[in-house]
Specification:
Helices cover about 40% and strands about 10% of the residues. It has about 230 residues and is α+β, with helices and mostly antiparallel strands. It is globular and about 55 Å long.
Length: about 230
């Protein structure tokens, strides 16, 4: 019999299939309502502007291209009480699936997304379990050029442009895997391990408006910084 973690690793469904109401493989079929709620949230919240966002544009610039390109997938961990070890193992399995999924290179590859959804997890347990695993694994993901984000109904992580905005609140607890992009630095600035990985992977490709803060973070942590001077904005 397959373990819950093996189920999470083996069951990957396209968001488009959920939106079209297609028959899903088990165990995803048992959680069709929860997966539909997540895809609707992605369309109606992540893919839309928000008056409290603090900037123009969509809440998440990458969700719409991922949905439109068919590179937005969901997996489930079917347990009401997963242990941190089980969640971490499922995340690692999804990460392996993520790296093997097409496209593996080119512009469209940056829009790939896998959401590991916890359809039975009580929202009251999410801050400890989901946030805790995300904090523990984040730096290892960044070292691989990936991001791991936590979402649930009570997530208190503030927005980058408005500290009163809560962009990481979702109807169902989940962890999101996507590629690291140059504009991610503000999410990484307070962890020397993440800053070091950003400098190694992005380095000279840092956007002009972030170069000053990247250089300041590198100096703060005693890291060699390949980010050029000049053309800073703001």
């Amino acid at each position: 019999m397959r373990t819950r973690v093996q189920v999470a690793a083996d069951t990957l469904v396209a968001a488009g299939a959920v939106e079209r109401g297609e028959a899903l493989p088990e165990p995803a079929r048992r959680y069709s309502a929860e997966l539909a709620a997540v895809t609707q949230w992605a369309r109606k919240f992540l893919c839309q502007p928000h008056p409290a966002l603090g900037r123009t544009g969509r809440v998440c610039p990458y969700a719409q291209p991922a949905l439109d390109n068919g590179t937005f997938w969901l997996s489930v961990l079917p347990s009401a009480a997963p242990t941190p070890a089980e969640i971490a193992e499922a995340v690692a399995a999804c990460r392996q699936r993520f790296t093997s999924l097409a496209p593996r290179s080119g512009r469209d590859a940056q829009f790939k997304t896998i959401l590991l959804v916890f359809p039975e997890l009580d929202h009251r347990d999410a801050p400890v379990l989901v946030d805790g695993v995300q904090r523990r694994l984040k730096s290892a993901f960044v070292a691989r050029g990936l991001m791991l984000g936590q979402f649930h109904r009570t997530c208190d992580e503030p927005g980058l442009w408005n500290s009163a905005f809560r962009p990481l609140r979702s109807p169902v607890p989940l962890l999101a895997i996507r590629h690291l992009v140059p504009t991610d630095f503000p999410f990484l600035a307070h962890d020397p391990r993440c800053v070091a990985s950003y400098l190694r992977i992005i380095g000279g490709g840092t956007p002009a408006r972030l170069r000053r803060v990247v250089r300041e973070a590198a100096a703060r942590f005693g890291l060699r910084c390949p980010v050029p001077h000049g053309d800073e904005q703001g």
